[in-house]
């Protein structure tokens, strides 16, 4: 199984774990006891988990988050979601094909009445927003319960190996996401009035102002408990879900979201792909590409329909420098393959976002990541409001932005709730509100890179776009890097001359920049050559003095081969390797990064192929095609409830979480104004739960 | 404001109004259906779990439902659309002597009406429904002719057929008044316009009382709410609709419930619902936290293997109840041209198509003896004295 395991990683520790055996289709395989069935299957190179009962189409991982049911397998006779169920020694795992049969069970000995728990504040979601709110509430002695469906707190932060942007004073900018998660987790643990329930999924909000949650794995037998929580205030900090996209072959195993990918790679330490292609040039897609490279996965390319990537330029530059081509004004035409993804076909788009015939290109890949934006997970909030509960939303559940913004919005909501509960003696600092706004801002204009005039030693700031970020300014003991403290979106400037100071070549700015956008040029050492320090987040063993590396400029243009004269990694550099190279002087300020991926990786195939079958699926749970949906809309249907009844789109396991936005998009494409469309009635449950859990039946 | 002329206007495109539109259109009547929701069957119709049986204890309901079963069971071969009809039968289980007696007493009556229903003792009953909890099981009745269908697919099919025959449907429109002149109905006024017709049918389900009040009639229809749910699909293992009529008295800790019932839908999903005790009156259809634990315990107690089945969705809908559990159908003395088709209680979906056949006869003036007999039983002016045994 080692082939698909990540054996070493520049950022993440690889724990020693004891292997256990399980069977897949009768064949004995190895996995780990604390991982999910999905991770174990992926680690054994198995991507097809079953076949859809409706049309026999192959099924695999999609959300890796327990929200859909695409990864269903039969484990010891029971249909389970492979992404949420832990592997057990000797487990007999079978692919699902057709409808699962319901196993017999002995009569229940006892039903435990549903527990009802009251609290002042219930927070759904222990990500940056929820935890930041909990800290404010905990500081004020407010009884707070956090529920989170994962096995540890931190939400999406725990999947983020990169350093964060944002403000260094306000939200740990410059620190890696995983480490921010630990800090927040530890801080929350200090407050006696804050309790966290992990492995606990909120499943519904009811009109009697109770929130139903399922606590899993409460004992050795793996039992779950259904609990009703009666909060005075509900804070929904459930984050966002990834949007989906329609194209031919869009449900082939191997097509899935960037979140699922990060879960498999950075949490489960599985090399989920060998060759990856990415759709979407926002931060999520760009970062996923970077994480893939760090995990030793080839990144074949990235398409973005707009003329420019929507994510931060520094993120984009990182990928481009490492050798990942970015195709802007391009879209995905089809994912091709029989049982799973074998290749992807892309094409240039015209001004109406339609693929231009003749511009198609096909790339071999086994995985296609969809990273085309996020929607707030707001169903709990909407229901709570409908039922007249005192409810707030924070973070992405409120407004999709960066984790730094989520922390701020959590802090603010925390204070608002404290005030609502009658705590006094504090104001919500006005600068918080301002910072929250700034952190939410989209990337602004691209102005200038800062290339200081020749001095003896100086940093080059390859950071030219207005983004909310400032860690570089805070580490320089000389105060030589400046961003207007009133507005950290401004581009950094190097102001040593103005201040009359000189750079002491401490390399701190090179280390901390989350964009890996700062290099240090040292002209003091040799007459013809410059020494340039480049940040590098790959394994330290991968480069050593004496090696030759290919360096590139910001745009990824090759500048040539240069020699490594020193590498440095230390506690203070926190897993970032500082690579010093000797380069011709005229190249010194242009060098922005080191190429890591060879050219051949990104080559298209000789001929383009396209999926013949038009299986563009809108509702993947019920396998309803875009053609069917459009036909219904063309026939005059405007009520999404009716579409559901007619086609079953939205009736599936995910409850329309995946297809609703695609149906709305189909309306838009056909020119139906949103005002004419009636939305689906929102009904609980928001996640499927066994009857036995509601009944309080326990395994002896 | 538009003023168009129709032969009949039906208020409500639900379980009753929709098949009626089809029947009337087939009779050549220019028919308009008006509904407040955005599309067909979005009121209680959508909340119904889809059970269809003729095995009642009231002759009118038996007659109507026999006609309904004929329509449901032949729909696909006649008109082509799949409405999910499954002839799985109904099974009323008995775990206590009380229920055994109730069911057996009723059986005598039902047999007199010529219904196909029998009592099965424990062993034979377990052969029929092997998943039942055998502990304490006495036996139960089984009526193989009954079945189920999808309320939404049915409503869509009736609507499609009605439109094909010329009926019109207006959605997102609320009837605010019924126009009358000299004791005669003239049409309706809505929040969008005005439509003329000499006959107006009140098929407004949970809103029946308000609509009847528009012509000054008081109908004793009081909605109460029931919650239902649906699970993930699994391979077929359960044939009949299983009904358990044992009541559970409320305690201070736990809400009580009367009967509950569930079956395996044509999709493989189990659909279930329960009758709260005491009833929850009113038109509130917002889901409560009481339902799931309550119904889950009872279902698993009855059928242990259900414990691993995952619930997908739940909802709450209305039973438009009458004092005796039978609908109120037909003309009224005070206003000519106004017709009630209301108070369907927990059975509007199964009654709908059959009722439409009788109402068509009433409206087209083709009233035969059987129609008269059914209408007399369901008259607004009957004695609402005793409740039916199996609502
Ligand atoms: C949980 C549950 C389970 C059930 N299971 C079954 C079952 O298994 N079998 C069965 O036969 N029955 C079942 N029922 C009962 C069944 O749903 C109802 O009896 C039936 O739907 C009532 O039909 P209706 O046409 O009277 O009302 P509806 O189907 O509610 O139709 C009435 C329509 O009138 C419209 N309307 C009302 N007022 C106005 C106005 N002023 N202007 C415009 N439009 C208006 C409403 O919008 C609505 O669409 C169940 C009910 C529930 C709640
Ligand atoms: S290398 Fe050190 S002294 Fe020089 S600019 Fe960077 S942080 Fe400041
Ligand atoms: S140079 Fe400064 S502002 Fe730009 S990304 Fe790096 S740390 Fe942020
Ligand atoms: S995609 Fe899950 S219900 Fe449509």
Quick tags:
heterodimer, A: 700 residues, alpha/beta, Ubiquitin-like (UB roll), seven-stranded mixed sheet, globular, B: alpha/beta, D-Amino Acid Oxidase, Chain A, domain 2, 2 domains, nine-stranded mixed sheet, six-stranded mixed sheet, 21 strands, 29% strand, binds iron/sulfur cluster, binds FE2/S2 (inorganic) cluster
Quickly describe the structure:
The complex is a heterodimer of chains A (700) and B (391). With 700 residues, chain A is α/β, with parallel strands linked by helices.
Describe the 3D structure.
- The complex is a heterodimer of chains A (700) and B (391).
- With 700 residues, chain A is α/β, with parallel strands linked by helices.
- Chain A folds into four domains: 1-101, 2Fe-2S iron-sulphur cluster binding domain, sarcosine oxidase, alpha subunit, N-terminal domain (Ubiquitin-like (UB roll)); 115-240 and 377-439, FAD/NAD(P)-binding domain, CATH 3.50.50; 457-601, no CATH class; 617-676, Arc Repressor Mutant, subunit A, CATH 1.10.10.
- In chain A, the strands form eight sheets. In chain A, strands 1, 2, 3, 4, 5, 6 and 7 form a seven-stranded mixed sheet that branches. In chain A, strands 8, 9, 10, 11, 12, 13 and 24 form a seven-stranded mixed sheet that branches. A seven-stranded antiparallel sheet of chain A has the order 25-28-29-32-31-30-33.
- Chain B has two domains: 3-77 and 151-221 and 325-377, 3-Layer(bba) Sandwich (FAD/NAD(P)-binding domain); 90-145 and 222-320, D-Amino Acid Oxidase, subunit A, domain 2 (D-Amino Acid Oxidase, Chain A, domain 2, 2-Layer Sandwich).
- Chain B is built from ten helices and 21 strands.
- In chain B, strands 5, 6, 7, 14, 15, 16, 17, 18 and 19 form a nine-stranded mixed sheet that branches. In chain B, strands 9-3-2-13-21-20 form a six-stranded mixed sheet. In chain B, strands 1-12-11-10 form a four-stranded mixed sheet, with no helix packed on it.
- The longest helix of chain B is centred in the first third of the chain and has 21 residues, at 59-79.
- The N and C termini of chain B lie far apart (44 Å).
- The relative contact order of chain B is 0.20.
- The complex binds flavin-adenine dinucleotide, iron/sulfur cluster (SF4) (2 copies) and FE2/S2 (inorganic) cluster (FES).
- Residues 314, 461, 463, 469-472, 492, 513-515, 517-518 of chain A line the site of one iron/sulfur cluster.
